[in-house]
Fold this protein.
Amino acid sequence: MQNKSNFIKVDCEVNGKPVSLHVSPDQTVVDVLRNELGLTGTKKGCDDGNCGACTILLDGKAAKSCSMLIGQVRNKKITTIEGVSNGEILHPMQQAFIDTFAIQCGFCTPGMILSGIAILNENPDADEEEIREGLHGNLCRCTGYVKIVEAVEIARDRMNAGGAKNEI
Amino acid sequence: MSDCENTNYIGKSVQRVDAFEKATGKAKYFEDYQIQYRDLLHVKVLRSPHAHAKIISIDVSAAEALPGVITVVKGSDTDIPWSDLPYASAYYGNPARYEVIWAGQAVVAVAAESIEIAEEALELVKVEYEMLPYVTDQRLAMGVDAIPVTSPELEIAAGYGGPQPEGPNVMGSYKLRHGDVDKAFEEADVIVEEEYQAGKKSTSQIECNGSIVEYQQDGGVKIITNGCGVHGVIKNHILTMYPQLTSSKVRVIQPVTGGSFGNRLFPLVEPLAVLMALRTKRTVSYVLTRKEMYTSSPSNWPVYTKLKLGAKKDGTIIAEKLELVEDAGAQIRGYFDGRLSSSGLMCVYNIPNVHCDSYAVSTNTVPCAPYRGLGCAESEWAMENLLDVLAEKLDMDPLEIRLKNMIKNGETNAYGEKVTSIGLGKCLKAVADGIKIDEPCQQDDGPWKYGKGIAAAGKQNTPLGRAEADCLVHSDGSIEILVSCDEQGMGVQSALRQMAATEFKIDIARVKMTRADTAITPFDNFGASSRTTYTTGNAVIIACQDAIDQLKEAAGREVGLAKKQITIKDGKAYIVGSNTEVIDIADLFKPFDFFTQQTWGLLKGTPVRGRGVFCPAPAVPWFGPGHEDGRTPRMWNWYQFSAFGAEVAVNEETGQIKILKLMSTADSGNPINPKLVEGQIDGGVIMALGFSIMDHHMYQDGKMMNPNMSDYRLPTTLETPLQKNFMRAILPDPLPDGPFNAKGMAESIMIPVGPAIASAIYQAIGVRPTEMPMTAESILKLIKDKEANNAK
């Protein structure tokens, strides 16, 4: 059924592994991640970049994967929620979200965790207001953001105290 | 042996059972199952662009001819079960037959090999409409001369009770007469009266509604959905709508879901997806877009309230008269009658004379369904605001008037019900202390003015039927709880797990939860009215006790003791009153023996199964002979309470509002898991902050103007106060019949937020908002009106 004559080749890195995609150029990054690569941890809550559930890291910076075409990630490094932990060892941001009860329905959680990591990538000492600024593109309807902001602060403190490097 | 204190998990913030899978992206939501199906069909729906129009003709021939289109459904198709009843509340997701009654109603549905083909097919559909007059304002929809929401020639009554004398759009009414209101107003020293309006809003959970329906070879269906109530709602409705499907042919599974807040309490997407699966004999997926979430999935119901209060000089309120109208949106044969919202005006204050006339009316707007709080945030908006007016006239402070008049434990409310749990007094005092209501705000010369306000709230719990639970004791000694309650994120399965571990006095790591699959887990109705902790919780306790009873008997048999001489803890049986271990539970399960065949006793590999069934005591009818006054000793079940205080800044030049500091308190009953309760407080406060000052449906020419997440403005991290300015407390009054004395709490949190902000606005700039949300535009208009009045 599908006409593959206009497909494009996209080479990129997903969660530390090289990936070579042969896909339609009108595909969004989130659809390719979910449907082609089976990385369903990246969520879709809207289709116009407003909810932030589809947030991924692109070369370490937060990006909304529903608003990007697949050609835009050529030769870039993508990190999804599946690539955040090191095997069974959780990233400090994930552990902080669990410890602080920052997770309720969980649908915004992958995007929130990745935005949190991106904030600290840019500024390892981000204060509460800077964290709030960095999270404002991610909507949550369950938590009121209180424990989410607390989780990012705790992750920041743990990472700074333990010298744990944020390598994503 | 274990220390019992260590296995008492009540009141402990045990980590959520689902936290790890959600933090790692491993949690599977319904849409994540799509990739398992290589031959999936996708459903897309053409929706009405008009608020009210007659369908003259629909031509789907070009759509049907498009390669990749498998089937097309329109309301006039004769094989669909709802074609004689296209609008009733449970059916509002399905294609219209004769006319469309709101902009967003389904008209044609397509199932195709891909989303793109389905969307292309919809563009080929030709629909000819004849425009009809519409009404989107609930005040204009009332009355005998109102524009009818459906054409009169269709002869479809708005309410399930048939045509109502009050007007063509009136669905039903609830009236209550308590005491002698006219006499009480004559005796009152002070009388206040005002009209209030609360607006239309969408729950806006981040996961859009949708389902996957897998066609089964026996002609049945397996439904994987984020809809609520796998047994009580979805399966029941599907069986009612499709007579060819019998109970064994419908399996409903609710995987991890992304919020609901009431929005998913009616089957919106499942009926159409099932029809498509039955027609095509294939697996289909139907997922709403965000725009469809706003224009076709239900909103709250807006409420108009005209409220009058009379009080004695000492502040005792002796008379309450209310006229309340719920706007149920575009639904026909709906169940609304004003009773749900008016309950908010009956459950907080003890007023000896009450006259309540409440109605529900339909309009040509998005159909309405429960929104966290069940219409009480909308009605108590009136009560709490008017109480402030009354307090000012009496020269009382807002705390004092509320404490003086609130219902006390053991007292009887206006319905005639005895209230058995109310912790509101300490909730109110705590917020007043928390925001230092007695200390006036410092003002300066800038445009920002500052004020503080407090408000109280109560919310009924509806007796909504049965919950069942199974408790398996596996032959390794571990526990598995099987329930069908909804888990929309609130963490209830974690709380239920804590109850089970506490009952068994066992390490919680040995308790597993299995949930919401009608083929495996027993009946539950649905997660509404904050009922799950209470109703399903009680069922879990009963199931655990049943299983423990069986273990005691089996252990007693081992050593020749009666079961009442046995106690179970830490996975072992002991003799009551001594620390003598009888047997490890795992050892009660015997391996298969060729010479006895093990037809008796506990067999290794098959668990002991405890059964629990719990129903709240039923309501006593409030209508019919002997109930002309609308009163009854049992209308609702129990009540949750909350108080809220806020310090706000209002910009006199722009009308903008900033929340500087807030405090919320919850009477949750005895909290099972305090961190989970805190999460409900935080989320409830911010959701309510949104609909109090920001988010609402905006209509123009009969259509919603803002059906997306940039124009429909929801609170982000920037609109919410810093952590140090966000205070909260759990101040429980134990519920006698709650599981471990807990009750639900997630709804009352919402209710006092708006009125407390309104009170603070009045203190800051001297205007009293009567409409919610209090957007910058509406506050600026109040400021300008006040200036114009002062100029006169």
Observations:
- The first strand of chain B starts at residue 41 and ends at 47.
- The domain at 303-414+421-463+629-791 of chain B is CATH 3.30.365.10 (Aldehyde Oxidoreductase; domain 4).
